[in-house]
Amino acid sequence: MGLVTFRFGDGDCELVTLDSLEPGRGVGTALVHGVLQEGRRRGCSRMWLVTSNDNLGALGFYQRRGFRLVSVYPGAVDEARKLKPSIPMVGEHGIEVHDELELEIRLRPGQPAPLLG
Q: Cα–Cα distance between 116 and 102 in angstroms, integer?
């Protein structure tokens, strides 16, 4: 139904990929919730991810689940495109792809998991 890849290190957890075969059915939410629980169990201080500026669906999904925008990396995708020219210039919703956005959710041991919806 879905797949999440993540990495624990340096006291935090990076959410690398999140995929669902049936969007809107709670699969992604359940996967994020599971990683959040494991991050808390391991004593991580935060869970974070990076997405591109055109990924409006992901931005909304993560913000509705308690993630906050913490950094913008202007031109990061433009730089990556120099190494990988196949990265499209225009992405979702006709938005030009130039920047990376970092989102995070803070974790505290013993803190209940946020209500994810």
A: 19
C-alpha separations of 27 from 5, 52, 60, 74 in Å = 14, 22, 16, 31
Q: What is the Cα 30 distance to its own chain's centre?
A: 14
Q: What is the pLDDT of residue 108?
A: 75
* Tens-digit pLDDT profile for residues 24-44: 889 999 999 999 999 999 999
C-alpha 55/C-alpha 77 separation (Å) is 13
pTM for the model stands at 0.88
- C-beta of residue 10 within 8 angstroms of C-beta of residue 46: no
Which is more confidently placed, 110 or 104?
A: 104
Task: Identify any residues that bridge with 8 across adjacent strands, giving them in sequence order.
Answer: 13
Other Cβ atoms less than 10 A from the Cβ of 10: the count is: 9
Burial of 105 per CB tally in 10 Å (0-12, 13-18, 19+)? buried
